[in-house]
Amino acid sequence: MDAELSASTSTAATTVVQLPATVGEQARSAVGSLWRRVHPERAETAQAELEDGRVEVLVARRVGDEQVEQALVGEWQGRLRRLVVADPELVDELRRVVVRLRSAPADVEPSRGATITMQATAFGTSRVNQAGRDLHLRTEE
Fold first, then answer.
1. pTM, full prediction
2. List of residues 6+ apart from 88 with CB closer than 8 A
3. Residue 115: which of 94, 98, 132 has the closest Cα?
4. CA nearest to 98, candidates 118, 74, 69, 78
5. What tens digit of pLDDT does each residue of 4-25 get?
């Protein structure tokens, strides 16, 4: 469970920090709803800190400072991990939030050379197909 928890929180942190501005409000709202379930008194603070961090990321991207973004992803991974440890039932909700945020339409293309983190788990005879952008599959039947 520990590796799974780490992977889930890492993916979620990367998602909420790196989303384009057009999806940022959805990320802020999702983070707030997660915090409200465990620490309702801290939800607004968590939302404000996420927004502040996203502004830092945008500025850092303009000047080419990749370390700021990496540091914020690490910071949010720790926060999300502590939140999920406090309420393990949040793991599934966290996964749903990531899926919802990543599937939200964005007005801008991801920047060239952007870091993409993907995770998949397959069971039995299932198949996993992942792509950093477009994926076209054709099955012969």
1. 0.66
2. none
3. 132
4. 118
5. 778 888 888 887 887 755 577 7
SS (H, E, C) 58-72: HHHHHHCCHHHHHHH
Query: How many other β-carbons are positioned within 10 Å of the β-carbon of residue 15?
Result: 22
> Per-residue b/e over 18-55, b at no fewer than 16 CB within 10 Å?
bbbeebbeebbebbbebbeebeeeebeebbebbeebbe
- Longest alpha-carbon distance in the chain: 55
For residue 38, give the amino acid letter.
V
| Token pair for 64 | 């080419």
Helix (H) or strand (E) holding 83: helix 66-86
